[in-house]
Amino acid sequence: MPIVLKTSREIEMMRRAGQVAHDILGKMRQACVPGATTLALDLLAAAEMNKVGAKALSKNYPTYKDGEGFPGHTCISVNDEVVHGIPGSRVLREGDVVTLDLAMSLNGYCADTAITVGLGKVSPVAKKLLEVTRNTLDLALKQMKPGKRWSDIARMMQHHVESHRFSVVREFVGHGIGRLMHEDPKVPNFVTFEQLRSDFVLREGMTLAVEPMVVAGRRDVDLLPDQWTVVTSDGMPAAHFEHTVAVTAGGVDILTDGRLGKGQMVPGGL
């Protein structure tokens, strides 16, 4: 499918969805404490989306195999769970590393955002993992500007992660976003010969979900029997940070930073 460039009006519609998503994610983060269940966090998000007429895009998302769609309104992944953790009766504990991943639409426009938080005192490895993953996203955003090839940015992201002896997950990538949660292009956090065949040049009006997924050990992952939850093969912790952004003439505009009107402009890198 062709990449859909957005008008300024469409970007503002996405910003409104992003502002709501940011606020809901913030409430989830406040409630993400030892003793809380992942289901309670999910139901909190569902109630907040319902208040403003937003639609949870994860709920009933079609599975890649035969069976039911995704059961949660959000994805909540704990410790060695990389993505697509199903909210349930699991009780969070001190030292857990928890990824809160929220995708929603409002008035027909989508926003996708994620954070990983450590509960209380986490291990030194987990603390470093969160820092490196967050910085990897920041690095990518600062490098984005029209005319830049995505592979150049992805190569920098991969190098930053691997320089800290962590690994980038390769089974999942970022994506275009707009009226649909998943649009072209694919937005990887690494570079391979296969990915280079679908490389693209950033253009003003592109709206992308940039989302590095980083693991503390080997990059190998497994799919659990629930057919959704993806875990690290070696049991090491994972982290995931994500923003929905728009490419502008001067760099990138973060649409899920919680601001109304003109968002936070991050100048493009050299």
**Low-confidence spans: pLDDT under 50, at least 5 residues?**
265-270
How do the strands line up in the largest sheet?
8-7-9-14-15-16
> How many strand elements?
16
General shape: globular
CATH architecture: Alpha-Beta Complex
Instruction: Enter the CATH topology name.
Output: Creatine Amidinohydrolase
Nearest-integer average pLDDT: 94
Task: Provide a concise account of the structure shown.
This protein has 270 residues and is an alpha+beta fold. It is built from five helices and 16 strands.
Question: What features would you describe in this structure?
Answer:
This protein is α+β, with helices and mostly antiparallel strands and 270 residues long. It has a single domain (8-257), classed as Creatinase/methionine aminopeptidase superfamily (Creatine Amidinohydrolase, Alpha-Beta Complex), CATH 3.90.230. Helices cover 29% and strands 26% of the residues. The chain has helices spanning 8-31, 38-52, 124-143, 150-163, 193-196, and strands at 55-56, 75-78, 81-83, 97-106, 109-118, 167-168, 174-176, 183-187, 207-210, 213-215, 221-223, 230-232, 238-240, 243-248, 251-254, 264-267. It is globular and about 45 Å long. The two termini are 30 Å apart.
